Amino acid sequence: MKNLLTLISTCWFVLGSTAPAGRPFVTDDPEPPPAGGWEINIPFILERTPGKTEMNAPLFDLNYGLPNVQLKLEIPLEVLHEDHGGKAAGPGDLLLGVKWRFFEDEKSQVQLGVYPQALLPTGDHRRGLGDGRPAYVLPLPAEKSWAKWTLYGNAGYWWQSAAGTRDYWYGGAVLEREINGRLSLGAELFATPRRTDADAPAWPSTSVGHGN
């Protein structure tokens, strides 16, 4: 959940059985992978903020499905380049999460969930890799489907303890249209305020993506 005024370029590789909605968008959905199945995402993410460029090259996003539950582990390999010459590379902070879809109604095609996650300070903060302190996020995702359309979104809150960071609310929504059994198109609206004291003011962003 990064500052929306950053420039982010993402390339996705998705492995495993049928992937639920969500990728390649920032907004979470309540649907876990099939029980016993894996969803493995390997994005390369480039982020530009004032004074530095950061890249996850790549980010290993590993997800395992249980009945109505998703277990999540994110392992980033970070590359940092500061405008005044500083450079660093290595493992960043780990993200652990458990998604629980506590409501699913097949008749109305409504799903509701909760997705608590913890960011662990495993990166070398002295070299600029990671925040150096733990952080926690609680997204509340929801989804509604009808015919070939799916609308999902979530609102969440970040608790941050690193120096210079802020606690903040964020939210997003995605509307997707199934084109055929292997292709869907979607559009996203996502908004978050400043996440650190140094961030520039942020505004809602939009994105367009596809899945297969």
A few lines on this structure:
The protein has 212 residues and is mostly beta strands. It is 0% helix and 59% strand.
Largest sheet: 15 strands, antiparallel
Mean pLDDT: 84
Domains, number: 1
Global Rg: 17 Å
What is the CATH level 1 assignment?
Mainly Beta
Number of strands: 15
Can you tell me about this structure?
The protein is mainly β. The chain has a single domain, classed as Porin. 0% of the residues lie in helices and 59% in strands. β13 and β14 (183-191) form a beta hairpin. The radius of gyration is 17 Å and the shape is elongated. Mean pLDDT is 84; it is low at 1-10.
List the helices and strands and how they pair.
Elements: E1 7-11, E2 14-16, E3 38-41, E4 44-49, E5 52-66, E6 69-82, E7 87-91, E8 94-105, E9 110-114, E10 117-120, E11 135-146, E12 149-160, E13 168-180, E14 183-191, E15 205-211
Antiparallel strand pairs: 1-4, 2-3, 3-5, 4-5, 5-6, 6-7, 6-8, 8-9, 8-10, 9-11, 10-11, 11-12, 12-13, 13-14, 14-15
Structural key phrases:
Porin, 59% strand, mainly beta, 212 residues
